[in-house]
Amino acid sequence: MASKSLTERTANDVMHSRYATADGFMTVADGIQLMGQHNASAIIVNRRNEHDELGLVLASDIAKKVLAANRAADRVSLYEIMSKPVISVRPEMNIRYCARLFAQFGLSLAPVVDIQHNVIGIIDYPQLVAGWGAN
């Protein structure tokens, strides 16, 4: 199969699966362990019901909102520090538009979600650049 040109590469082509999913009531301490177990760069916080939205916790959220604030990781829940709602991308979105979206909204990563709103991967700057540079 021929490789795709830059104009044809999509989020689906370059996304990765280094993320974990968790309930918002999980403690930050447990979330840190979960990230380590999955070699995850992010925790996707599950929806509570079909009318809810995904949440997102990054290591930077933990550092800024728990560590720097001198809060006990075993007494803080993920829902207290997550970003919500999350800007996500479609699997068929061109990586050039992903990069523009990241720049426009100050994102460092975004979940890739299918038509049923299920997370199927994560896209971030390293993946975008690697996908752009790949032949």
TrEMBL record:
Keyword Metal-binding belongs to the record: no
Signal peptide: none
InterPro entries per UniProt: CBS_dom, CBS_dom_sf, Diverse_CBS-Domain
A Pfam family it matches: CBS
Domain annotation CBS: ranges: 82-135
Assigned keywords, A-Z: CBS domain
PANTHER family reported for this sequence: CBS DOMAIN-CONTAINING PROTEIN, CBS DOMAIN-CONTAINING PROTEIN CBSX3, MITOCHONDRIAL
Name of the protein in its database record: CBS domain-containing protein
